[in-house]
Amino acid sequence: MSNTKVKKMLFILSKATLENVYAAFVMANGARMEGIDSEIFFTFFGLEAIQKKKLEHLHVATVGNPAMHMPTMLGGLPGVEALASNMMKKEMDKLDMPPVGEFLEILSDSGCKLWACKLAVDMFHLEEKDLIDELDGILTIGDFYSRADQEGTQLLFI
Amino acid sequence: MDKTIAQATISVDQEGYLTDFSQWNKEIGTEIAHEQGIEMTDKHWEIIDYIQDKFKNEEPLSIRGIKKSGVIDIKQFYALFPGGPLKKATMIAGIPKPKSCI
User: Fold this and answer.
1) For residue B4, what pLDDT is reported?
2) Which chain B residue shows the shortest CA-CA distance from A3?
3) Which residue in A22, A42, A120, B94 has its CB near the most CB atoms, within 10 A?
C-alpha cells in the first residue's frame, strides 16, 4: 500500500552493542510492518545477540563513544557500562521496546529470517545449541547474497 | 478529502485513513478491507475491536502490544492482514495510522 521501491531489506549485524543491535532490530521489524521482507545475518560480535547465554547481557559502549558525553577514562571504570546500559534499557522499556530475546521472537514471528554467519560461528567455536531456537540457519556470506533474489533488495551493514 | 463508500460519505486523509472515527461503521470497515484485499472474518473483527478499544483509551499501538493482547499472536496477525498488518488493521478500524516505529 505504500509506494516504496524497497521490497526486501537484508541486514548484516556485526556488532553487539545495544545501540547497534536495536538499530538493526527496529529497522528489520519496521520493514515487516510496512510489508517489506527483511532478514538479518549475524556475524562476528553480532553473534552475541543470538547466543542464548549472552543476549540479555548486551551493553552500550561507554568508551570511545563521544555521544555518551562522558570522559573516556570515566566510561572505562568498573560498573559504568552496566549502569549506562541499565538506564538505556529502562528508557527503551518506557517506549515499549522489547528486550533482546523478546524482540527476536517478535522478528521471527513477523517473518523476518534470522541467519548466523558460518565463518564467525566456527571462529567463536559455537554450536547450534548455543544459538537461539528461532534461528533459521547457519549460512556462508555467499548463501546470504543469494537471498537478494528480487528487484528492490537493499543490503545494509551495521 | 471525501470518499464515498458503503453508501456513506466519509473524510479520509491522502493515504485513505478516516479522519473522523465517528463516521466509521462496520460496513465501511468491510469495504476498506475489501479494497485492501482482505475478506473480514470473526477473527479479523476481534482484532479490530481490540485496536479500537486501544484507540478509545488513547493507548499507543505497537506490535509488542499485539503480542501481549491475548487476542492473537503475531504470526496470525501477519497472516490475517498480509503486507503491513498494523497499517491495514488501523485503516480498517477507522483510526489514524500508528505513529510508533515499533
Assistant:
1) 86
2) B15
3) A42
Does ipTM come in above 0.85?
A: yes
In the predicted model, residues of chain A with pLDDT beneath 50 are: none
pLDDT of amino acid B7: 81
Pairing of strands A37-42, B8-11: unpaired
Q: How confident is the model over B67-95, as pLDDT tens digits?
A: 888 889 999 999 999 989 999 999 999 99
| CB-closest option in B64, B65, B84 to A35 | B84
Nearest by CB to A26, which of B67, B87, B102? B102
Identify all chain B residues contacting A32, using CB atoms and an 8 Å cutoff: 78
Name the residue among A89, A131, A91 with its Cα closest to residue A108: A131
Query: Active site includes B87?
Result: no
Read off the pTM: 0.90
Residues of chain B with pLDDT under 70: none
Q: Nearest chain A Cα to B82, which residue?
A: A35
Facing residues of B8 across strands?
B5
- Domain ranges for chain A, please list them: 22-157
Longest dimension (CA), chain A: 50
Three-state SS string over chain B comes to CEEEECCEEEEECCCCCECCHHHCCHHHHHHHHHHCCCCCCHHHHHHHHHHHHHHHCCCCCCHHHHHHCCCCCHHHHHHHCCCCHHHHHHHHHCCCCCCCCC
- The per-residue pLDDT for A20 is 95
The Cα A149–Cα A99 span in angstroms is: 31
Instruction: Look at residue A92 in the predicted model and tell me its pLDDT.
Output: 86
Per-domain residue ranges of chain B:
2-93
Question: Which chain B residues are within 8 Å of A105, Cβ to Cβ?
Answer: 67
